[in-house]
């Protein structure tokens, strides 16, 4: 099979696993479990907790002892077993530990998938900036396909979503062992300090004021992403309790409506090199923050009836909000980092967004919603929730503009990569 097709299949399954349950677990939780929003926030925070240490730890394992593609496969096989166990849990305390174990196996596979793809492309002398985005787009397609599968099979409030994810994880775990070899390359580990071996050298980037500001705001944007992941689908499901909306398309198939966000993402991903080169990271990140403001603000005033256009527009805006901070930020980190710490710098970016940002977004949002936006009977004030999140995003943009003082150079914003990046240690 053609290399690009093999990597396309890997990316498709990688995010199909996540898409099968990530946006619909809230609906499953609140309609099948009599557990609090705070407990749900804790469950959702397991992604962030595992991202605090597992990507870096598994990166060291892959660099020193085992082929990245084999480790990738083993983690997905273990993840398949854990996903299969999720529906069998009957109390929130046990659910927290089961989901934490599930995320411990899944989260490092995101960075390992990138490592496997980059290694394979570079070994073939390809340019990863040019050749990887069209491959990565298929990960988003996989996420969309999973959402549609879950929705059309009417599994959004059912345990079936976890069984679908488990089956996909099992398939990818087995397929991983057929991927191009990505052998350990840390032959020189003895000559490196413990800080370098553990990937902690990337924290030196905080010495630069602009990079420190960038990473702090990346963390805050990571929190915004968790808010939409955790509560978007649940928000639409709640309209089923309103007679005027219970039979509308958005309420019957909310995951399909939400998948417009991922469709938008596939389009905006391809515009990133142009925007970064033309306008620079400061403008692109500011646009992302304003897009998050619109994302939440449109949710606040939208509904599945006459206001459906606002919900659809919110989903379209999501593509810009996500891509312009997540993927653009990753490219910026790579361009600003010493090539010797490029991998650990990307790990630091993931730590700030999917780690610390995700934990804060999950726990703080769960607490705030429980204490200020949930009635005694359990009904949620979604208008108030989304307005609060929108103001949070607007405040980020207002603070980011004067604090981040990076000067854009059109000639160096997007790095060029290729065969020269691949060297034997």
* SSE sequence, one letter per element: HHHHHHHHHHHHHHHHH
Query: So, the CATH homologous superfamily?
Result: MFS general substrate transporter like domains
Helical percentage = over 70%
Let me know the average pLDDT. Answer: 80
Q: What would the CATH topology be?
A: Growth Hormone, Chain: A
Number of separate helices: 17
Shape: globular
* Count of folded domains: 1
CATH architecture annotation:
Up-down Bundle
Intertermini distance = 29 Å
Sheet with the most strands, sense and barrel status: none
What structural category characterises the helix and strand content?
A: mainly alpha
CATH class: Mainly Alpha
Rounded to an integer in angstroms, the radius of gyration calculated over CA atoms is: 21 Å
Strand content: under 5%
Name the poorly predicted regions: 412-425
Total count of strands = 0
């Amino acid at each position: 099979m053609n290399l690009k097709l093999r990597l396309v299949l890997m990316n498709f399954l990688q995010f199909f696993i996540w898409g099968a349950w990530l946006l619909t677990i809230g609906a499953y939780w609140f309609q099948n479990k009599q557990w609090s929003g705070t407990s749900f926030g804790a469950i959702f925070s397991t992604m962030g907790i595992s991202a605090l240490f597992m990507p870096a730890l598994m990166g060291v394992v892959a660099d020193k002892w085992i082929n990245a593609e084999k480790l990738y496969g083993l983690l997905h096989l273990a993840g398949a077993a854990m996903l299969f166990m999720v529906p069998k849990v009957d109390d929130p305390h046990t659910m927290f530990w089961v989901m934490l174990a599930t995320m411990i196996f899944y989260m490092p596979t995101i960075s390992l998938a990138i490592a496997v793809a980059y290694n394979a492309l570079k070994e073939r002398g390809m340019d990863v900036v040019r050749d990887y985005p069209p491959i990565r787009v298929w990960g988003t397609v996989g996420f969309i396909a999973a959402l549609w599968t879950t929705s059309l099979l009417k599994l959004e409030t059912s345990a079936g979503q976890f069984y679908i994810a488990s089956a996909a994880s099992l398939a990818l775990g087995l397929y991983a062992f057929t991927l191009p070899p990505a052998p350990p390359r840390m032959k020189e580990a003895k000559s490196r300090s413990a800080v370098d071996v553990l990937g902690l050298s990337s924290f030196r980037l905080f010495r630069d004021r602009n990079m420190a500001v960038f990473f702090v705001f990346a963390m805050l944007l990571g929190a915004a992403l968790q808010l939409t992941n955790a509560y978007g689908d649940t928000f639409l499901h709640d309209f089923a309790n309103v007679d005027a909306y219970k039979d509308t398309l958005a309420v019957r198939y909310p995951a399909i409506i939400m998948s417009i966000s991922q469709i938008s993402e596939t389009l905006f991903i391809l515009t990133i090199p142009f925007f970064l080169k033309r306008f620079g990271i400061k403008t692109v990140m500011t646009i992302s923050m304003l897009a998050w403001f619109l994302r939440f603000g449109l949710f606040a005033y939208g509904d599945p009836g006459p206001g459906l256009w606002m919900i659809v527009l919110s989903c379209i805006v999501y593509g810009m909000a996500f891509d312009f901070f997540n993927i653009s930020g990753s490219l910026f980190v790579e361009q600003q980092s010493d090539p010797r710490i490029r991998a650990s710098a990307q790990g630091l970016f993931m730590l700030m967004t999917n780690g610390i940002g995700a934990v804060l977004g999950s726990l703080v949002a769960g607490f705030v919603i429980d204490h200020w936006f949930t009635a005694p009977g359990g009904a949620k004030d979604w208008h108030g929730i989304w307005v609060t999140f929108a103001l949070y995003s607007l405040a980020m943009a207002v603070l980011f503009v004067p604090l981040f003082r990076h000067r854009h150079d059109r000639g160096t914003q997007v790095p060029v990569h290729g065969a020269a990046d691949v060297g034997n240690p």
